[in-house]
Amino acid sequence: MYVIIEDEEDLLSALTDLLELEDLQVVGFTNFFEAQKFIVENQEKVDFVICDNNLKEGLGIEFSRDLPPNLSLCIMSGEEVPGLQERDYLEKPFSPDQVFKMLDRHKQKMSS
To answer: What are the two backbone dihedrals, phi and then psi, of residue 39, each rounded to the nearest 5 degrees?
Structure first.
């Protein structure tokens, strides 16, 4: 299961639809704390989290430190986020192709 945390509802909806086109199970949240509760309660089912960095509640990169450590994570941002490797970062605005490449990197990481 993929969890998306994005406080811009239009982008959350578009990204959810895009992942569902790939037959992925997706749950979206506009609030980090609601997503965090869901992830903790369902961590055996959650494969990957895509989180906006600039949320109303604060920085996604800071919040991500409170997620289970074995969880794969991608941060989305319109600004550079220091310290992230390419596979961990999706720069806004992004194209569907960039999302698919990020998903492929995640799948390769999981299979190795």
So the answer is: -65, -45
Q: Which domain holds residue 10?
A: 2-111
Number of domains in the chain: 1
Report CA torsion sign: 99, 105, 108, 109: negative
Mean pLDDT for back-to-back runs of 10 residues, the chain (112 residues)? 96 97 96 94 94 93 83 89 72 93 85 75
The two beta strands, 2-5 and 48-52, are parallel
Q: What is the pTM of this model?
A: 0.91
* CATH at residue 97: 3.40.50.2300
In terms of C-beta density within 10 A (0-12 exposed, 13-18 middle, 19 or more buried), how is residue 6 classed? buried
